[in-house]
Structure formats: C-alpha cells, structure tokens
Amino acid sequence: xxxxxxxxxxxxxxxxxxxxxxxxxxxxxxxxxxxxxxxxxxxxxxxxxxxxxxxxxxxxxxxxxxxxxxxxxxxxxxxxxxxxxxxxxxxxxxxxxxxxxxxxxxxxxxxxxxxxxxxxxxxxxxxxxxxxxxxxxxxxxxxxxxxxxxxxxxxxxxxxxxxxxxxxxxxxxxxxxxxxxxxxxxxxxxxxxxxxxxxxxxxxxxxxxxxxxxxxxxxxxxxxxxxxxxxxxxxxxxxxxxxxxxxxxxxxxxxxxxxxxxxxxxxxxxxxxxxxxxxxxxxxxxxxxxxxxxxxxxxxxxxxxxxxxxxxxxxxxxxxxxxxxxxxxxxxxxxxxxxxxxxxxxxxxxxx
Length: 352
Hints:
Blueprint: E1 3-8, H1 13-25, E2 28-34, E3 43-47, H2 53-59, E4 67-70, H3 79-96, E5 104-108, H4 112-115, H5 142-157, E6 160-166, E7 169-170, H6 180-194, H7 204-208, E8 214-215, H8 216-227, E9 235-239, H9 247-257, H10 272-275, H11 280-289, H12 297-300, H13 303-310, H14 321-325, H15 334-347
Parallel strand pairs: 1-2, 1-4, 2-3, 4-5, 5-6, 6-9, 7-8
Helix pairs in contact: 1-8, 2-3, 3-5
C-alpha cells in the first residue's frame, strides 16, 4: 500500500467515517490512535492516553504514517483547560512522529472557530456565511491552540497541512458528544413511546434562520481530498453539506420518519437537557422492550451539545467557495443525512 493513514480519534464520528472511507477506496493502510479498540475491520488500533506524552510515544514507537488525521478532542470544565489538554493532544502526536517522514497533517476543528468556545458561545454575530479568511475571535479558543501546534510542527518537519471546519456533525456514531442525529433519534423515540410532544427545543432564531450541517461521510471525503490534492495544501476549509435550510422546514420531516407529529413551535427554547431530565428509566425500559443494545441514555444522546447548537440566537451557515474553486464538488442533502443515520442506528439496534 502506498499510503498509511494514522487517524487520531479513530472511534469517534469523524474518525470512524474516515476509516471506512479510506479502507473502501483501497490503497490505504489505516491505523487508529485511541483509548478503545476500533470496531472497523482493517483498522490497526494503537491504544494510548492521548494526553499522556509517554503513552503516545509508546503507542507510536513503530508507526511511520504518511498522512495524519487528527479528529480527537476532550471536553474540559473551562476553556483554559480545553486549550491545555487539546493542545497537548496535537503536540504529543506530532512530537512523537518527528522525523518519521509524515507528508500531510489534517486537523478537524469546527464552527466554534467563528462562534467562540462554550463559555462565550455565539455571543457575537460574525458575518454570514462564515468564510475561512475571517479573523480569529479575541480570547481563548482551543481550536486556535490546536491549529498553532500544527503550524509549528509543519514548520519544523516540512509536512503540508489542512484545517477542516465542519458545522454540526450528522452521521452514525455511539458515545460521541457531537452526534445530533443520535440525540434527536433518541428524543423522537421517547416522544413516540410516551406520547409527549415532539417539540423543537431551540431558540426562535434557530427555528427561523438559515443554517447548515455536515454529514460525517462528506467530511471524510473532504479530509481525504485535501490530504491528497496539492492545490489544497496549507489551507483551512469550511466543510458543510452544501444545502442551506431552516429548522422549521426540517423538524416535521424528522418527525415524519419516526411516525409522529411535530408539535407547533412554542416560540421559546425548551432545552433537551430539561425535557429529558429523569428519562433514564423510560429509556432503560425501551431498551428491554425493543431488545436494543444495552447503552445508557447518556451514551447514546448528548442533549447538552444539541442544546448548544439549537439554542444559538444568531444565524450560522458556512461558505464552501474555497473548496469548490479547488475542485471539491461533493454535495449531500440534509434530510438524507439524518435519515441515513437513523436507518443505521435502527439496523444496529441502537434505537427502536
């Protein structure tokens, strides 16, 4: 095989979709750096604690990847701690690979590049659509720290790099904080089982405003494209489906998939964390009733993260012009993103 990919965070929503994409194409050896074993056949798991530099060095002692894809992050209590921990993840990996002949490093961050960290999330309104050349926001942001670690290592080792900024990720994953598809699937399933209204939990602005999302499969294609396209080297890219929509249009379509009615929007936020507080017993009974995989509610759904996305009080969508001009023309319709994820979650008995 001519190319060897090291995926940092290979069991997450981005890393797992990337591994499947590279293996399906052929011509790639794929190693995954993560705490847990990758369930994907063909991925060689290198287990370590990404925050521990010695653990990372030991896991990568014999690794000589041509391409490194960094898709991991670790949520901390403060943004200062996020910067410390998530900057260390990037630095530990790239320091361990110094002098190993790495050709390209791709870093996945996200739209918080434009919106700020959770502590000050979406408190300002950057001009939409977001464009890659927009200035960094003032203050701490672990995405900026991770970028700077990549830039420093590239200057030292001579590899090319790419930065990938997806919006809300949609796709198949379990135990991933950023997976809105699984979260809304669980919410809709509980609503159907209990008869509670399937109410949009977010802000009036998100209900009405234009927005977009990122299919994890499209992100995987984009990561591979940028890592293997010379004209895409040393650039940052927004990565979204290419379809702009409004939640007031999409919400009834999600409801229809689950055979329920979308409740009329109340005009005020009703966060999922509040709605689903105490829902664990209901979910546990559903797991037994429908013979689902024995996942805790907190493992399948990340209500807090979806609340952050759906509760924003500003318009958020991204420009894809830079990728289009360089030849990446892939498109994914958003309804299909959600339904495909729901279908796979059902097939694997994650949801009823």
